């Protein structure tokens, strides 16, 4: 199965590139994008875990830290922003 491109648009027409994402990370990032678009804000750690089948909050937090390293998101004290 061919891999999806890891080039994404940030909505302003500019594209950015993130390092390779695992399938689970792709699902998490898609869920974050969809939730922000539909609800105007990022999902909670618990909501992310429920969506992708991660039972542990620490597992979700680990994935979010990986996204930060890959410059896919920016986390703040009370939320997530897409990079």
Question: What can you see in these coordinates?
Answer:
Helix 2 (45-52) crosses helix 3. Residues 1-5 have low confidence and may be disordered. Strand 1 (7-9) and strand 2 form a beta hairpin. The protein is globular and about 25 Å long. The protein has helices at 23-39, 45-52, 57-69, and strands spanning 7-9, 15-17, 73-76, 79-82. By secondary structure, it is an alpha+beta fold. The chain starts with 6 loop residues before the first strand and ends with a strand. The longest helix has 17 residues, at 23-39.
Features of the shown structure:
single chain, 83 residues, alpha+beta, two-stranded antiparallel sheet, 4 strands, globular, disordered N terminus
Task: Compile the SSE list and pairings.
Elements: E1 7-9, E2 15-17, H1 23-39, H2 45-52, H3 57-69, E3 73-76, E4 79-82
Helix pairs in contact: 2-3
What value does the average pLDDT take? Answer: 82
Morphology call: globular
Discrete helix count:
3
Order of helices and strands: EEHHHEE
The computed structural class is alpha+beta
Q: Radius of gyration in whole Å, from Cα?
A: 12 Å
Query: What distance separates the N and C termini?
Result: 27 Å
Strand order of the largest sheet: 1-2
Low-confidence stretches: 1-5
Please give the largest β-sheet. 2 strands, antiparallel
Question: Helicity, in percent?
Answer: 40-55%
Strand content: 15-25%
Oligomeric state of this protein: single chain
Work out the number of β strands.
4
